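User: quick one, fold this
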Amino acid sequence: MIAERLGYVRAGLLCLAFGLVLATVTVGCVGGASDEVVVDELESIEDGHFVAWKLDPGTYKVELTASGDGATVKWVGSSCPGSAVTNEYSVTCEMTQTGQLIVENPSTFGRGAGTTVTVKVTRIGD
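Assistant:
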């Protein structure tokens, strides 16, 4: 009879442990902050022109690809690193204040080729 009771106690503890693990996983998947894509665009930029997006304070991941001679990335309102002319760029950056992300096709004396860029900006959940 004591052995039978110990078996029930072990089964109950195992069931309780499983329930706690399940609850933790469920809360982690449902209750946590999620990432949010705030920009997902394809842009054609003429020589010497740029596009810009306003970003509120937060942490962002920027992914960019550019055709042709490439593009530059600049952060305004943040100490995050920009880029030289590039065809690929991927950086995670914290904006401590409202600022901008600027993607530019640098000028070649006004006679350079245009570029097409894909820009994806994801706000990382807190």
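User: anything notable?
Assistant: Strands lie at 36-45, 50-55, 58-66, 72-76, 88-95, 99-104, 115-124.
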